[in-house]
Amino acid sequence: MPKRTVGGRAALAAALVLTGCAGGAPAPRAGSAAAPVDPMERLAALADDSLAGRRAGTPGAAAAAGMLARWLAEAGVRPAGDSGFFQTVPGAGVNVVGRIDGAGDGAGDGAGGAARDSAVVLGAHYDHLGVGRPVAGDSIYNGADDDASGVVAVVEAARALASGPPPRRTVVVLLTTGEEMGLLGTRAYLAKPVVPLERTVAELEVEMIGRPDSLAAGGGGSAAAGRLWLTGDERSTLGAALRSAGIDVVADPRPAQNFFERSDNIAFARRGIPAHTLSSFGLHADYHQPGDEVARVDSAHFRRAVAAVVRAARVVADGPAPRWHPGGSPAPAPEPGAE
Asked: How many CB atoms lie within 10 A of CB 106?
């Protein structure tokens, strides 16, 4: 997640070499249905020191991209990038992009055709800050919460969708790079979307769900475990739809932080697409510090939060298309950058 203020082909080649996928990520096996993997196991792999903080455009980020492509392939998700799962992002490496085709139901979806012709985007950013100023002898900014936690949740949601009943809409799985550098990956996707933006009915971002937020439970207590909040909840019908499905989601308890405008969702929202972020960031002191490590993730909360994201993805894929409330859609304008 960027603060309130603020090369493509080489990184792609590095990702392919590091994963042994000379022609892109391997295609999923027909009819394969991967079993669930413990989210903490995936989190430990993605936030490991060996990836050196996954700064966009570095070998560590390229290795992370290769790992994510392999996970999506194993889950039965179809590749949807320029080369396998990889979509080139000038100056920042590659996005990892997949798709799960919608089955539709013959009904219109308010997006120029049947539901199967429309799409939702399920996203998270996998880049972080890399190696930087040492703090207490640690110079690797692992980004376990920001945003390996969200990426793991999106991968598990994709696995559940690909291995369960076909979703009503096509689901685009978008794992972006360059979020910490000004939403570069999302901007690249918007310039070359898998499904045209006029047929994209929603974008659901997942960011920083590794620790519970006491304010989400009204001030503290075990009720915060597994509970997520939705940025811009009051702006559209999405939050109410998630709650109607029994998902433990509340409105963002810190509106003064402007979190609605501080993640990749804002770039979609400024294109008129209902787009929000699920999170449980409680302003912990390890934000953008080397202390954002797996050891400080609350495993019980994280596992419950991942399960909530899996359910939310199904609601967005199958339920009524989200709609902006009057005045809820942000004005078209350049999205904020990142420091």
From this structure: 7
Residues forming a β-bridge with 227: none
**Dist. CA 313–CA 293, nearest whole Å:** 26
Beta partners for residue 93, in sequence order? 89
Q: Provide the residue ranges of all domains of the chain, joining segments of one domain with +.
A: 8-318
Token digits of residue 36? 């669930």
| pTM for this model (two decimals) | 0.89
CATH 3.40.710.10: does it fit domain 8-318? no
Distance in angstroms (rounded) separating the CA atoms of residues 284 and 215: 12
pLDDT < 70 regions, the chain: 1-34, 105-114, 218-223, 333-339
CA distance 182 to 266: 11
Token output for 250: 């509340």
Cα dihedral 19, 186, 44, 139 sign: positive
Report the pLDDT value the prediction gives residue 322, as an integer from 0 to 100. 98
